[in-house]
Automatic annotation (TrEMBL):
It comes from Rhodovulum bhavnagarense. This is Uncharacterized protein. InterPro entries: N-reg_PII-like_a/b, N-reg_PII/ATP_PRibTrfase_C, UPF0166. It holds the Pfam family DUF190. It comes from the Bacteria. Belongs to the UPF0166 family.
Length: 116
């Protein structure tokens, strides 16, 4: 699979406690992205953050489960990201979704000319 050198980075900001039918929402999002054969997805767990409620979510030692922030990053072509958005809308009830144009320098094991 190739990603064009001009691609889209999709970032999804949710809470660790967010669920989809009992499963962690971040897991459902990644599995759906894989099912739709997007190039890849990465989940990042944040030690501190806040969202629309302005309530801090922290990973301090005495607070081990404080609904920490989670960020899912997916990079692929604009067409493939656009096809994924209706599924993402179906899965999410809150959170933040951003998209931005990115330049892909490397994907996979080899460097070389990338098709535009």
């Amino acid at each position: 699979m190739q990603i064009p050198s001009r691609a889209i980075a999709l970032r999804i900001f949710i809470g660790e406690d967010d669920r989809d039918d009992g499963r962690p929402l971040y897991e459902s999002i990644v599995l759906k992205a894989r099912e739709m054969r997007l190039a890849g997805a990465t989940v990042l767990r944040g030690p501190l953050g806040y969202g629309h409620s302005s309530r801090l979510h922290s990973a301090k030692v005495l607070r081990l489960s404080e609904n920490l922030p989670m960020v899912i990053e997916i990079v692929d072509s604009e067409e493939r990201i656009d096809a994924f958005l209706p599924e993402l809308d179906r899965l999410m009830t809150s959170g933040l979704i951003t998209m931005e144009a990115v330049r892909v320098l490397q994907y996979g094991k080899t460097r070389g000319d990338r098709p535009d």
